[in-house]
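Weekend entry, working from home. Most of the wet-lab plans are on hold until the incubator is repaired, so I used the time to fold the two sequences that have been sitting in the queue since the last round of cloning. Logging both here for the record. First:
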Amino acid sequence: MDIVFTRGEATAAEVNAALPDQPSSSTVRTLLRILEEKGHLKHREDGQRFVYGPTRTRAAESKSALRRVVTTFFEGSFADAVAALVDTADGKLPAEELKRIEAIIKKARTK
C-alpha cells in the first residue's frame, strides 16, 4: 500500500521492483488482488497490465489500520497503545511531539 500511495498508482511489476528482497511476481499480484477484494485498491486496465490505485486517502487508511492494531494488540485500549508508543521512544520524545499529544488529549476532553 505504501508503494501505491507514494506513486499514486502502480502496476504489479512496479510494486515488485520497489520491494526489498523482491518476492515472486505472482506473490505481488496475489497480494494486490487481495487488497482489491478487501476494498483498499482499485485497478484500471492499461493494455494487458492492471494499474492499481488506492480507493481511499492515506489518512483514512491509516486511521482504519490503527483501529485494527488497537483492537488486535491492545484489546481496544487506546491508552495502552499510546503507552506502548511512548515507551518505545525511550523517553526521548521531542518537546513539540509532547505538546502535540497534549493538545490532542485536551481537544478530546472537550468533545
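Second, folded right after the first finished:
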Amino acid sequence: MNAEIPEGWSNAKVEDLAELIRGITYKKEYARNSYEDGYKPILRANNINNTLNFDSLVYVPESLIDRKQYIEKDDIVFAMSSGSKHLVGKSARAIVDFNGSYGAFCGLVRPNINIYPPFLFYSFQDNRFKDFIQRVSKGSNINNLKREHILGYSIFYPPIDEQKNIVAKIEELFSELDSGIASLKTAQQQLKVYRQALLKHAFEGKLTEQWRKDNADKLETPEQLLARIQTERETRYQQQLEEWKQAVKDWEAKGKEGKRPSKPAKLKCTQRVVEQDFKIPNEWALTELSVLAYESVLGKMLDKQKNIGVDQDYLGNINVRWGYFDLNNLKQMKIEETEESRYSLSQGDLVVCEGGEPGRCAIWKGEDGVMFIQKALHRVRFTKSYLSVFAYYYLTYAVPLERVVKHFTGTTIKHLTGTGLGKVQFPICSLAEQQEIVNKLEEKLSIIEQNEKEIESALAKAELLRQSILKKAFSGLLLM
C-alpha cells in the first residue's frame, strides 16, 4: 500500500478526515410533496449524481431534523442504499448551504480541517473508489453502503496547498471537458429533433411530394388501395375460416382435449376515416388500424395454474425495444396446440407494447412459429399492400403525439389496449409510395444513427478522459 503513495503524501482513513452523519428517518404519512409551514425539504438518492439536483423533493416536519443533519457548504452527500445499483456510492458536494436535509438512505460526509473539502470530494469520484463500492455494496434485495465502508476507505493526500493546486487543475481540465460534452449533448439533442422532423415530413407527405408529381400516372387512388386491402383481408379471412373448421375437426377427433379453437373475428369493412386526426395529402387516406390490419391480437395471459401445453419461448414487454428485440433472458410459458397460430409470430409481424411505454414496437424478422407473445404485447399483421415497416416508422413518429396518446387508458400507469390501438389512425398511400418513403427514411435515418453512435463513442471517451485526469491527480502526476 505504501508504495502506491506519492512522495510527500499521507495516507489516512476517511474517519480521520471527516465525520459521517446518516440521514433522517420518517414515517410515510409525515411526508409532503410540496412545501408547508414547519416543513423542510430533504434529498434522496435520486437527487445525487456528482452534483445535487433539487427535483421531486420531499418535505418533512423540521422537528425530525437534528441541527447536524442540515446540509452545509462543502458537505459531501452520498447515496448509501438504493434498489438501483448504479446509484449506490454516488456522491455530490454542496456548493452552498442548503436549508434542508437528506433521507435515511443517504449519508453525509463532513470534512474536517485536515483535508481540503473539494479534494476529498474528487477522491470519491476516482475509479479506485468506484471499484471499492462495487465490491462492498452487496445487499440481498437492496444495495447498501455501511458507515464503516466509507469511514474505513483510505485516502492519499498531499499538504493542503498542493491539494488546492490539484483541485484547481482538475476543475480547469474538467471545465474544458464539460464544455466539449455539452456540445456533444447539444448535437445529440439536435439529431433527435431532426429525426422527428424527418418523420413528420414523411408522414405529412412532404418527403415524397415531388415523387408523387413525377409518378402521378402510376399511383392508385386511396379508394383503389383501400378496396385492394379489403379484398386481401377478405381472402385471408376466408382462409382462416377454413383453417378454423379443420382445426375444430382435429380437436374433436382428439377427444376435445384442451381449448376449442377460436373462431376468427368477423372483419370490419376497410374505409376512409371521416374525422381525421391530422392533415394528409389529397392522394392519401386515413383509416383506423382495426380495419387496416387483417389481424391484431393481444398475447396470452400468464397463468401457471391454468396454462397447459408445451413450454415455449415468449416475449414480454421488456424484450421489445424500439426497432429490435432483446432476446436475452427469455422466459417460457405453456402453449396448447390450438393456440399456436394465435399467439406465435411470423416474419413481418409488428409487435406493439400494451403497457410500460405504450406503442413501443418492433418488427419480427425471425423464424415463423417459434416465438410467442405474452398479454403485455399486441401482434399486428398486415396484408401485402400495407408494409409493416411503414407502420413501424409511423408509430415511431406518432406514439408521443396526441393522436396516439388520446387512446391510452389509465391515469398514472398508461396502457394501449386492443380497442385503443384499433382506433389509432394510420396514413394510407399507394404501395409504391410506401416503399419510396421507407427507402428515403432508411437512407437518412442510417446517417442519423451513425452520427449518434459517433457522439456516444465521443461521450464514452470523455468519461475515460475524466477518469484519466483523476487517476493522475491521485497518483501525484497531474501537476508535473
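Plan for Monday: verify the second prediction. The chain has two domains: 2-157, 220-429.
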